[in-house]
Write a structure and sequence with these properties.
The protein is of the alpha+beta class. It is 30% helix and 27% strand. A five-stranded antiparallel sheet has the order 1-2-3-4-7. Strands 6-5-8-9-10 form a five-stranded antiparallel sheet.
């Protein structure tokens, strides 16, 4: 089991004015040590983003601090995005995390948002890359931790990516909140009992009217 967190991040530089920074992360191990490591990582990632740096440089800086300040041997996978709601432009860095799914409304297909890089806390000096994509009207951005795709049913089958994509397609006309609720309900029915790993979601849907996000 792993401890996960999600958190909006402040951005003060002109380049990221009117933008929303967000993170979804997953720490190795479990229990109180993992919770403490997540708290440390969260604080250092927030601090590294305060100057408005883009995702990759922010996470490279945070990784250096995390590696120096922690002696636990744990690591944290992170997806960090900076979203401009008016245009739908998303700049992102995926540091060893499960690649979020961007479900395209125009052709009902899902693409994985990947970028080169490893989890934070493994090596003090790392190279992380970032990429950019535009979330178009009615598109859905689905960020998740591996507790979703690795959830097991009584027969030992994992929920997997295919079921996840099918659920997003089925819920493509729903709001972000409704999609999140549908996934939670579907997972509980699939597992036919408790979900043994933590599940964390960040769901963003662009609304066609007014060029805004939901």
């Amino acid at each position: 089991m792993r401890r996960e967190t999600e958190s909006p991040l402040p951005h003060q530089a002109a380049e990221t004015e009117h933008a929303l920074g967000f993170v979804i992360a997953d720490v190795s191990d479990k229990g109180v040590p993992a919770a403490m490591f997540m708290a440390l990582s969260r604080s250092l990632v927030r601090a590294s983003a305060l100057d408005g740096s883009s995702p990759a440089p922010s996470l490279v800086r945070a990784n250096r601090w995390i590696t120096r300040d922690s002696e636990s041997g744990m690591f944290v996978t992170i997806f960090y995005g900076i979203l401009h709601p008016e245009t739908g432009t998303l700049r992102f860095c995926c540091a060893g995390h499960n690649p979020p799914l961007l479900f395209r409304a125009r052709n009902r297909t899902a693409i994985e948002l990947k970028s080169a890089g490893i989890a934070l806390g493994v090596l003090e000096e790392v190279t992380l890359s970032e990429d950019e994509v535009v979330i178009e009207p009615d598109d859905i951005l689905f960020c998740y931790t591996d507790g979703v795709t690795e959830a097991l049913n009584p027969a030992g089958e994992a929920f997997g990516i295919e079921r996840l994509v099918a659920l997003i397609d089925e819920q493509r006309t729903a709001t972000a909140a409704e999609i999140s609720a549908a996934l939670t309900s579907t997972l509980q029915n699939f597992c036919d009992g408790p979900i043994f790993d933590d599940v964390t979601l960040v769901v963003i849907k662009r609304v066609a009217q007014g060029e805004s996000m939901a």
